[in-house]
Amino acid sequence: MSPRTAEQNQVLREETRSSIRQAAFPLFARQGFTQTPVSAIAEEAGISKGLIYHYFDSKEAILESIFEELAAMSDQAMDFPDHLPPAGRFVYMIEMIFGFIREETETMRLLIGLSLQPEALRTLKPAIDRYNKQQMTILKELLEELGHDDAETEAYFLGAQLDGFAMGCISMGEEYPLETMKEKVIRRYVPDHTTS
After folding, report:
1. Chain centroid to CA 163: how far?
2. In the list 39, 40, 150, 151, which could disulfide-bond 144, CB 3.0-4.6 Å?
3. What DSSP state is assigned to residue 4?
């Protein structure tokens, strides 16, 4: 058997890091960040505790990596195709966000559980602040292009609505009228848009 290439080693490393994140996220959300020992993450991931430290320096580093992965998923909603006008970019963003709400309900449930823990928030605060500032800047600029005078306030308002839709979907499941809410948001911000 020939030795693995550098590329194969990198793929294996990323797969192991991902399995550690996937094991840690629900444990952090349900048991609490402080109450979850690294040994529990190792057991859930099916690897040794020592091996975890080969991939992450600390439990805090695992939490930060989980946040980075979730932020990257969220970034896709703001990665607009270049050719779209402002209204098209807004509709694209809303379609992506509502798709995430629909498909990743359990991820959002875990994220809310994690966000209610002061110790986890302290660890993530610098990363969350950077991410929120970046996302608000993009949203504010898009709302300005759509003609909103107080785009910053409108961006916060829209963000609060989106959080509410996510909570509704989490609490009511299939009964929540998510598609209707999506169309209502689109009509509010892009009144001329027609759905096909």
Report:
1. 12
2. 151
3. P
